Amino acid sequence: MTPIGIGVEASWAALCAGKSGIGEITRFDASDYTTRIAAEVKGFNPEDFVPKKDARRNQLFISYALAASRMAMEDSGLSIDAKNGPRIGVITGCGLGGLATLEEHTMIINTRGPKRVSPFFIPMMIGNMAAGMISIQFGAKGPNLSIATACAAGTHAVGEAYKNIQRGFSDAVITGGMESVITPTCIAGFGAMKALSTRNDDPERASRPFDKDRDGFVVGEGAGILIIEALEHALERGARIYGEVIGYGMSGDGYHMTSPPPDAEGAVRCMEAAIADAGISCDQIDYINAHGTSTPLNDLYETRAIKTVFKEHAKSVPVSSTKSMTGHLLGAAGGIETVFSTLAAYHDIIPPTINFESGDEECDLDYVPNIARKTPIDIVMSNSFGFGGTNAAIIVRKYRP
C-alpha cells in the first residue's frame, strides 16, 4: 500500500517505470507551511478491505496495515485456523502511529470539552493496534509485537520475525511496517527541524537521494506487509516463494538524537552484523536498497558506510533509493523496501533512483540513476536508519529450490 500504487503489481510497475508519488498535500490546508508537499496514498477506500464499521473506527495507518495484510495473506495462500493460529505471529513496525487521532482529539478537548472524546480514541491512536487488529482479523494467536524504532521500525519488524521463526516460536509471521502521519503537526515538526524538502513548486522532483541538490526528505505513507515462514512450512503447503531472508543486523549509534555520526560507524556495524548473520561475504551482495532519505547528512554518511563495509566492491555494487519515488514512509519504510528488495531479486530488476542528476564529491557510487536496470540479482541488502541512532539491515536471497 504505497503512494505509487495500491497492491504489489501496481506499486512495482510504477517503481520500475520511475514514477513519483509525490504531490501537493490534500489532507489539510498547508498553504502556511514551509513544506507543502507529501507522498499520499491515492484512491484508497478502507471499505474495500474491512467492514464499514471497522473502517470507521480505525485510524488510517491501521486500515493500510489491514489492507496490505489481506493482500499478502491472499497472495500467500496461508490459511489460519484454531489449530495453527497459536503458531502464526504478527510483528509490525510503526513510528508515530495515530498522530492524526491525537491532533483531532486534542482539538475536541480544547473546543468541546473532555466529555466529547470518543471511547475509541486510545485504541485508534496507539501504534501496536495495527498488529493487534491484524491478529484479530486473521486469527493469528502467536507472538504479537509492535516495534517503535522510528524509521527503522519496519526493517526491525521483519528481522525480528525472521529470528522469531529461527528460534522456533512461530511457523509463520505476518510482518512489516505501516504509517500515516501526513498531518499538520508532523509536517510542522519535521519542517522546524529543517529535515523536509521545500521544493514545493516541483514536487515530483523533490525527493532526490544522493543528488548534490537534495534539500530534505518528503513524508510518505502506506504499509508494506510480508508473510515470512519456515521453509519446510512453506514447502509443505506448496507456497509460492519469492525469496529467502538470510541475514539481519542492528546497532545503535550512541551519538546524537537525530544526526548520524560522520564516520557512520553505527551503520557500518549494522551492515557488517547482517552480512555475518547471513554467512556471506560483502562481495556476494548484488544490490543495496539504501535508506537514502534525500537529506544532506544521511545520504553522505550512508555512502561513507557502504564504502567502509564494501571497500573495493563499493564501486561496483548498485545502490538505489526507492524513496525517490515513494517519499519516506517513516515506520513503514522498511516494510515496503523489504518487499521491493525481494521483488528486485525475484524479477532481476533494480529499481532506479530518480531525480539523480549529479552526485557531490563523496556521493559517487552507482546509484542506478533514473532508469531501472535489468541484471541478474541473487542477494540484496536493505538498510533502514532511525532517529535516536537506531539501525537495521535485512538481507534477502533469491530462492532456488
UniProtKB/TrEMBL annotation:
Molecular function GO terms recorded: 3-oxoacyl-[acyl-carrier-protein] synthase activity
One Pfam family it belongs to: ketoacyl-synt
Active site: 151 (for beta-ketoacyl synthase activity)
GO cellular component: cytosol
Ketosynthase family 3 (KS3) domain mapped to chain residues: 1-398
Pathway annotation: Lipid metabolism; fatty acid biosynthesis
Matches recorded under InterPro entries: 3-oxoacyl-ACP_synth-2, Beta-ketoacyl_synthase, Ketoacyl_synth_AS, Ketoacyl_synth_C, Ketoacyl_synth_N, PKS_Beta-ketoAc_synthase_dom, Thiolase-like
Catalytic activity: (9Z)-hexadecenoyl-[ACP] + malonyl-[ACP] + H(+) = 3-oxo-(11Z)-octadecenoyl-[ACP] + holo-[ACP] + CO2; a fatty acyl-[ACP] + malonyl-[ACP] + H(+) = a 3-oxoacyl-[ACP] + holo-[ACP] + CO2
Cited SUPFAM superfamilies: Thiolase-like
Function: Involved in the type II fatty acid elongation cycle. Catalyzes the elongation of a wide range of acyl-ACP by the addition of two carbons from malonyl-ACP to an acyl acceptor. Can efficiently catalyze the conversion of palmitoleoyl-ACP (cis-hexadec-9-enoyl-ACP) to cis-vaccenoyl-ACP (cis-octadec-11-enoyl-ACP), an essential step in the thermal regulation of fatty acid composition.
Name the UniProt record assigns to this protein: 3-oxoacyl-[acyl-carrier-protein] synthase 2
